[in-house]
Specification:
about 20% strand, about 700 residues, alpha/beta, six-stranded parallel sheet, OB fold (Dihydrolipoamide Acetyltransferase, E2P), Rossmann fold
Length: about 700
């Protein structure tokens, strides 16, 4: 297949817009350094420097009409100004009074004495900010711009004006003028990225940039953003789809669909039947693993939906086919739990299960020392040995039985080598970076890949962060899951909370108590497990309380977890370390203190640790939210246990950058697209990118 490059850099490098910013008139060394602090290195960067907001300067608010708490723009003349120092000169406040004939507005800057050099009495000034008090009307630290005489018809007044992100020493007026002049000179060089695409319902790319900076009305702002966002998303989708197409063209994996001779006895031993959703997903996985093209599949399902059993069946398919399997988990606690589960399930079937973490290795097995090779003739069936020669010796060394290795990040280290790796499983994918995923996959010759997450992924993120993967969803819970009742309580209710916990412990339940920190920071506002441990031991006596956090040695963690699983510890006092994978069916209580310090998805994961047994389960979120957002988070958790609804809410509250981190996700920063709101644009970009790749009509211009 002839390779098709998703992007050509030739036109980008030869465009006048690729010239450095200091090639523009009026941009000397100081201005170059200031622009660089804003990420503006080239003319292209300057023209795509997105305003952070707009001011409608066709009609200013009258000072006398400004309301308390209102964000507004006003205009007037400075009638008085001055700097006051106090606290023996260590602190200051600079203030001017603005008048427009309807009232007076006090503008103040605390501990910024240099502000006095920018204003003089009689200056005509525009201000923007929130009214702090009405007696007198006051705005603290407003944005300001001094109006120059005779510019009533300039780019700065009597129109919708862009307000840009700035840096020290750079003014709105100077940057606005530079962008305006550059647009007039070079705006015609802004070209369509993909000339073959017809996007008739949106402005051209050149028009969009003009509208971005100097819109004629408010509607143009949104249309400009949509067009530039669509271009960003098309480029992102091209990269994602091209990566997948390249893999399909080049990669030749091993068929690993198995023959059911291990899966059948495994399912018979489970003691319960798979749900319809689990069965459906396993059909999709078997179909993928039967092909010579390696599977790339994301399995998502809410906490407790049965992903681990699906992972076990997938592993058995590869093991039945004679191939090794590697399963990577983000924490030693989760890896240890997977190891115990898979050993319990697989060892009766004759399958060796190994564990490799930073602190523990259960086997000295070294695949490199066995000279397994990478022949492509296919595996021998488990237990099949060549016929011996007359003297009893085997003419060919028998191939070792396949092994399932469970581990943490230790699996991606050079010390771990695994030949004939047929399947890689990554649990809690969002805890790993894209590069880490790729390092593990490269351990073998294009093994099949199954990544799992119990953090439901909103569709916009599914199409972008995991756009190179096929997606399976387990949307059904196994029978017997106990609904979890969730309550939000203030810190003043803690005595009643502990009384309730003691009652449930006396009934035979176990409990988790989670705090956001390991050590006390000294502020006293956010609690830490190490400080609260002694207090809680006394509060919940005679019930035994164990302590678990990330700074304990691995053997200490395992000792505490073993005691909690065995029931000799009644309460596990922990950090969010337990948010993934910990499974103790008798644990039916979860108390989270300082709950406002946790994200929505994290709290939902923590809640997933309970409701796994016969006891009625309760989650109590104790906190004192100080912001509407924190209060909203806790309210959502009290109202629903639907992980997908929670994930959508978390995306809207925090955004994808905070949710996953750019390094984790591998998605480049987006200037115009908003993954919280732009699902229709993402879907449209996906279709347009597919057309470009299938039609091989990618002709890319720089702008």
């Amino acid at each position: 297949m002839v390779p098709l490059m998703p992007e050509s850099m030739e036109s980008r490098n030869s465009s006048p817009l690729s010239a450095p910013a200091n090639a523009l008139r009026g941009v000397g060394p100081d201005r170059t350094a200031q622009l660089a602090r804003l990420g503006i290195q080239t003319v292209r960067d300057l023209l795509f420097h997105r305003p952070r907001r707009y001011e409608d300067r066709r009609n200013f608010r009258k000072i006398g009409e400004l309301q308390l708490g209102e964000l507004a723009a006003a205009r007037g003349q400075i009638v008085a100004l001055g700097l006051k120092r106090y606290a023996k000169g260590t602190k200051s406040v600079f203030e001017f009074i603005l008048a427009d004939g309807t009232g007076r507005l006090h503008c103040r800057w605390w501990n910024l004495p240099y502000m006095q050099q920018y204003f003089q009495q009689g200056d005509d000034v525009l201000v923007y900010g929130k009214v702090h008090t009405l007696r007198p009307r006051t705005i603290d630290h407003p944005e300001t711009e001094v109006v120059v005489q005779n510019e009533e018809n300039s780019i700065h007044l009597n129109r919708i004006v862009p307000i840009y992100p700035l840096t020290e020493g750079l003014s709105q007026r100077w940057l606005r003028f530079l962008i305006s002049r550059t647009l007039q000179q070079l705006g015609g060089q802004i070209m369509e990225r993909w000339p073959s695409l017809a996007i008739a319902d949106l402005p051209t790319r050149s028009q969009a940039v003009q509208m971005l900076h100097f819109p004629s009305d408010l509607i143009e702002i949104d249309r400009a953003r949509m067009r530039l966002a669509l271009d960003e998303l098309i480029e992102l989708q091209l990269s994602i789809q091209w990566r997948r197409k390249t893999l399909q063209a080049k990669a030749q994996g091993w068929p690993c669909a198995g023959n059911n001779r291990l899966i059948k006895p495994f399912l018979a031993r489970l003691g319960f039947s798979l749900t319809g959703a689990q069965t459906k997903v396993l059909r999709e996985i078997r179909q993928d693993m039967a092909a010579t093209q390696p599977m790339r599949r994301l399995l998502q399902g809410d906490v407790g939906s049965g992903k681990t059993v699906v992972a076990a069946c997938s592993a058995l398919m590869a093991l039945e086919s004679g191939f090794n399997v590697a399963l990577m988990a983000p924490t030693e606690i989760l890896a240890e739990q997977h190891y115990r589960n898979f050993a319990r399930w697989c060892e009766p079937l004759g399958i060796q299960v190994d564990l490799r973490t930073g602190s523990r290795k259960t086997s000295t097995h070294d695949p490199q020392a066995l000279n397994l090779g990478t022949d492509s003739s296919g595996p021998l069936a488990i237990g099949h040995l060549p016929s011996p020669t007359a003297n009893g010796a085997s003419p060919i060394a028998p191939r070792p039985s396949p092994i399932l290795t469970v581990g943490t990040h230790a699996l991606i280290e050079e010390s771990f080598a695994q030949e004939r790796l047929g399947l890689v499983i990554i649990d809690e994918q969002h805890k790993f970076g894209v590069a880490q995923r790729e390092r593990l996959v490269r351990k073998g010759r294009y093994p099949h890949l199954l990544v799992m997450t119990a953090t439901p992924i909103p569709r916009t993120l599914g199409l972008t962060l995991y756009g190179d993967l096929d997606i399976s969803v387990i949307d059904e819970f196994p029978p017997g899951r106990t609904p979890v009742k969730t309550f939000v309580r203030g810190a003043d209710h803690l005595p009643k909370v502990w009384e309730f916990v003691r009652t449930k412990l006396a009934e035979g339940c176990q409990a988790y108590v989670v705090y956001p920190r390991v050590e006390d920071s000294g502020s006293g506002e956010v609690k830490a497990v190490t400080k609260e441990w002694e207090t809680l031991r006394k509060t919940l006596a005679p019930h035994r309380v164990g302590l678990l956090h990330g700074r304990l040695r691995a053997e200490e963690k395992e000792k505490v977890m073993a005691a909690f699983r065995a029931g000799t510890l009644h309460v596990l006092l922990a950090t969010s370390l337990i948010e993934v994978g910990v499974d103790v069916p008798n644990a039916a209580l979860l108390v989270v203190e300082n709950a406002e310090q946790f994200g929505l998805a994290q709290l939902h994961q923590l809640r997933g640790r309970i409701g796994r047994g016969a006891h009625e389960s309760f989650c109590i979120l104790v906190g004192s939210p100080t912001t509407p957002e924190a209060e909203h988070r806790l309210k959502i958790l009290a109202e629903t246990t639907d992980g997908f609804r929670i994930a959508e809410a978390d995306l809207k509250l925090r955004g994808p950058g905070d949710l996953l981190g750019q390094q984790q996700s591998g998605v480049p920063p987006l200037l115009f697209a908003d993954l919280k709101e732009d699902l229709p644009l993402v879907e449209r970009a996906r279709g347009l990118a597919k057309r470009l790749i299938e039609g091989r009509s990618i002709v890319l211009n720089s702008f």
